[in-house]
Amino acid sequence: MAKKKLFKEVALKWLESKREGVKRNSFSTYESVLSGVILPIVGEESYKNVSQETYVKALESNLKMSYADDTVYNVVRMVKEIINFEKTLNAAVSKTERNNSYNFTFSEAKSIVERACRGKISYRKLGIILIMYTGLSVSELSALKWNCIDMKNEVIIVNEMAYRASNIDNTGKKSSIIFEDIEVRRIPICSQLKSILERYRSCDTCIPTHFVLTNSDSVMEPRLFQRFVKNFFKKGFEDGDFKRFRTASDMRSMFIVLALKKGISPFTLAEIVGTTIAHFCRAYSDYIFAPDTRYEMTKLGY
Question: How many CB atoms lie within 10 A of CB 155?
Fold first, then answer.
């Protein structure tokens, strides 16, 4: 019997999809409303039930008994957006592919990295490699410069994100690329990634102030890189099913799931990808493997 899909599973995927396209403050608001209001009420309900129009109307009526009208409006609007997010996702992916969406394997990861390394130097392909080895978000990757890659100390310093925002100035432009400072993270560079980065540095001039994705002073906005990722997975793989890879977020999820399978601590991974341990555990609880309880308790030893 197929396991029913809980609303919280869809909601957390929706939240992750928002990370790369909205301002940091907006993302924090989404996260607080989701964890503080929506998930405690409907998180454990099946998505199928919550997606019914009658259920949403009943939810709205119940919320009005405890919250102000503006809060109720925003919560209901968010619930509807999550429902539409899943419907849109379902329209693009078959049932079989959806069921296997997070069944990532190490052989698949190896195939992705090998293909990205194949042929001539490509900084967009380097972006794919960086996500596969660090779990960077697209907005963080777009803002990454060569001076943030510290080869001597073998760390990548993440301190900024880039995204396109609408109507943010009075210059007459419809939208512009915005750079926003974020909490500094230092992601260790593993030996495999280090050798790849050294190859790029030896084959081309990498000016410290240039962006990594373009190797120039021009930034590549997240949506253009997402388009490249989509085309990257459309063809060129001799084996394996890569149709379920549609965005850079899928590779970010692959990095996290495979790292958990390798036994890397959830606390370490939450710090690496820049999220709270609470959100991380909610999103990836199915892939956090607890050690043997009896063995763990032998460590207590008062």
Answer: 15
